[in-house]
Write a structure and sequence with these properties.
74% helix, 12 helices, mainly alpha, rod-shaped
């Protein structure tokens, strides 16, 4: 063997082992990650996640009815959504991890524990890239397709809120209803006698007196607005003052023909019902807000759990795919 042969053998590191003279030299700077396999598994997982997500939205919208007491309940819809998210992660992450482990290159002269670690890393990286890609897709045009049902529902709710706001601007909503209830005529009160029947002279068209000019049309609206302001101030302070109750009772007595005592009893009764209605609406609004907050918290927690399950399944599937590759 010439000195040049010895130099060549020492350079590749197998001069001391004749059995390795025919093997391909190892590349010290080569990466242990097969990025082609990782990207392929991530693409498959992202595409499968998107397909299953759109299928789940279609099935969910088909089970929900816009009419009351129809379709699935909110609890059943929430449970089915959680189960579908977990199912999506199981299928998509398992497929992506398996492809990442099955398509990677075969490692020679690598310890078994190192092979397991690399396969696990391949599956985890494929899951991570697929999750980021899916999140990016859901914020673009594809996201508008996926969330189309939610956007339509939100738009419809916005239109309904605008209609109710416009209606409430004209009739003051609940407050206007109870103020109007104050001035309802008592059906048991005797009707006023017709003066033309009592005096024959007045009944003669030629002796009729000039008609009395009608009252100003805005007088009733002014009184209603004044009572509305009194009630609003009482709602803010928490109680209807005695002088306000007496004054509103006088106005009601003049408009309805009730006695002062009966009018004040009506004022206090209507104000009590108004307080009860507003308290009920406030309680309902708080309940809805609290339910929405809890639903958001539960959705975030279950989404975290489903993603964690997806990461575990992708890593395990990559180990299984790597074993199949090394057979």
């Amino acid at each position: 063997m010439t000195p040049s042969d010895l130099l060549s053998a020492d350079t590749f590191g197998y001069a001391d082992d004749p059995s390795t003279c025919c093997q391909e030299p190892l590349q010290a700077g080569s990466s242990a990650a097969s990025w082609g396999a990782i990207m392929a598994g991530a693409a498959a997982a992202a595409a499968l996640s998107l397909i299953l997500l759109m299928l789940g939205i279609g099935l969910g919208l088909s089970s929900v009815s816009p009419w009351s007491y129809n379709g699935v309940s909110a609890a059943a819809f929430g449970v089915s959504t959680i189960l579908w998210l977990i199912f999506t992660q199981l299928i998509a992450s398992g497929m992506g991890g398996y492809l990442a482990g099955r398509l990677r290159t075969k490692w020679l002269d690598v310890h078994t524990d190192e092979v397991y670690f690399r396969d696990t890393a391949h599956g985890f990286l494929a899951w991570a890239i697929a999750s980021l890609a899916t999140a990016a897709l859901l914020t673009t045009v594809i996201g508008s397709i996926v969330s189309g049902g939610a956007h339509i529902g939100a738009a419809a709710m916005g239109d309904m809120a605008a209609v109710h706001a416009e209606k409430g601007r004209h009739d003051n909503g609940v407050m206007g209803y109870f103020v109007d209830a104050l001035f309802r005529k008592d059906p048991n009160a005797p009707a006023a006698a017709d003066p033309t029947l009592a005096d024959p002279a007045i009944a003669d068209p030629e002796t009729l007196l000039p008609p009395i000019p009608p009252a100003k049309p805005n007088r009733g609206e002014f009184i209603t607005a004044e009572v509305d302001r009194i009630f609003k101030n009482a709602i803010l302070t928490g109680a209807l003052p005695q002088e306000d109750s007496r004054y509103v009772g006088q106005v009601v007595a003049q408009r309805t023909g009730l006695s002062q005592q009966s009018a004040e009893l009506r004022v206090n009764s209507v104000y009590g019902r108004l307080q009860a209605r507003l308290h009920e609406q406030e309680t309902t609004a708080k309940t809805v807000a609290d339910s929405t907050r809890k639903a958001s918290v539960y959705a975030s927690l279950w989404l975290f759990i489903s993603l964690l399950i997806g990461a575990f399944v992708a890593s395990f599937a990559a180990i299984f795919g790597g074993r199949q590759r090394d057979l």
